[in-house]
Amino acid sequence: MLFIGIQVAHASEWNYLQYSQIKWREYKAATFAEASNANKPLYIFIYANWCHWCKKFETETLETKDIRFLLQRETIPVAIEYDKQKELARKLGAKMVPTSILSAPDGKKLLRFHGFLNAKELSEVLQRTLSAWRKGELPVEEFGDDTTCCIIQE
């Protein structure tokens, strides 16, 4: 299992996406166990509250009815707020926000992209990746659009 064990904020300190209707989970061992038991990959969304593109992606893509349904039916959604979990975000390869990762329950990366996708684009890439994974393939796809994300300045 490739779960990256990093100390995360306590549940009382956890800051989920402000208006989300998605049941976001924390990145922790219990979440990977839930994904394994349900035989679902994790959709990991790394965001920052100060990022315009993160808010746009949340409201115009993630919170659309079809995407909410897809994420909740086919994946275990995980949210990571960059400013509260910088070390974890970096270990997962986030150099920009938003960054999205689709991870198998054993922690193997299936997909990572940064930037904004509209609902149709996100649905297509998730469906394609989920279909390949269900066939036993390990599709590792990485892409992104530097013009639709915020570069992390350190």
Brief synopsis:
The protein has about 150 residues and is an alpha/beta fold. The protein is about 35% helix and about 20% strand.
Instruction: Classify the helix fraction into a percent range.
Output: 25-40%
What is the string of helix and strand elements?
HEHHEHEEEHEE
Strand order of the largest sheet: 2-1-4-5-6
Q: For this structure, what is the CATH homologous superfamily?
A: Glutaredoxin
CATH classification, class level: Alpha Beta
Cα shape? globular
Largest sheet features: 5 strands, mixed
* CATH topology-level fold name: Glutaredoxin
CATH architecture: 3-Layer(aba) Sandwich
How are the SSEs ordered, and which strands pair?
Blueprint: H1 29-38, E1 42-47, H2 52-62, H3 65-74, E2 76-81, H4 86-91, E3 96-97, E4 99-103, E5 109-114, H5 119-134, E6 141-144, E7 150-151
Parallel strand pairs: 1-2, 5-6
Antiparallel strand pairs: 1-4, 3-7, 4-5
